[in-house]
């Protein structure tokens, strides 16, 4: 839609202005000059997330420390500014007005999720209780709807990026906005999150790109819900070379004689309808994430 395209341009322009202003005001100091590291909460190729205590007093602060050698200045500013913009929503992890540059890292503060992430709750091959899954589904659907209404696409919806404030999932938040981009941006093939990637993204090769759309998040959201219900992924990759995806694709497409694939038979008819709509092969016909709310009153398994 033309209106959405214009909104996307407005959002991109606003984000660029916010990034420029934030960059001009960024203080420079070393971590140990202001914080004592209490605990490492996570790490990756980007750097690490640590729980710290400010040396001048005050409550503990979670800092995301991003290695300069692996992080471009603009990428850091984009992630931090997007996180700030989304912090007003109850289901988006809140960024703190704390950011600085050290000799080796870019850093910004975020709220502590004391119960870890969704991976910590799941055992392989064992789904969560339906009540917990629905609590997660409702809150994440609202977080994604909030992002999409602002022409932002998360691009990395997965178990690791859903943070817990209690182990009963009464309060969960979507985090890690490092890959988030404005809708309509050109994106290429991704590595590392293939089980969550829709077929249109898996088909990209080399320098191929596609226009970013919120339907990508809807697909990943459905895969996440499948994982929460079953404790496993439905397939390794949404491509014809994957037999489990090929079975699903044939069933989804209504191929004569193809019944419900084995790994999907534990779902109720209502849950199957919901997941099939989120996993529509044609991204233009894929249901938005918020539609999950319509199915919360139905049994899922």
UniProtKB/TrEMBL annotation:
<keyword id="KW-0067">ATP-binding</keyword>
<feature type="binding site">
    <location>
        <position position="64"/>
    </location>
    <ligand>
        <name>ATP</name>
    </ligand>
</feature>
<dbReference type="InterPro" id="IPR011009">
    <property type="entry name" value="Kinase-like_dom_sf"/>
</dbReference>
<comment type="similarity">
    <text>Belongs to the protein kinase superfamily.</text>
</comment>
<dbReference type="InterPro" id="IPR008271">
    <property type="entry name" value="Ser/Thr_kinase_AS"/>
</dbReference>
<feature type="domain" description="Protein kinase">
    <location>
        <begin position="35"/>
        <end position="301"/>
    </location>
</feature>
<dbReference type="GO" id="GO:0005524">
    <property type="term" value="F:ATP binding"/>
</dbReference>
<keyword id="KW-0547">Nucleotide-binding</keyword>
<dbReference type="InterPro" id="IPR017441">
    <property type="entry name" value="Protein_kinase_ATP_BS"/>
</dbReference>
<dbReference type="Pfam" id="PF00069">
    <property type="entry name" value="Pkinase"/>
</dbReference>
<keyword id="KW-0808">Transferase</keyword>
<dbReference type="GO" id="GO:0004674">
    <property type="term" value="F:protein serine/threonine kinase activity"/>
</dbReference>
<keyword id="KW-0418">Kinase</keyword>
<protein>
    <submittedName>
        <fullName>SBK1 kinase</fullName>
    </submittedName>
</protein>
<keyword id="KW-0723">Serine/threonine-protein kinase</keyword>
<dbReference type="InterPro" id="IPR000719">
    <property type="entry name" value="Prot_kinase_dom"/>
</dbReference>
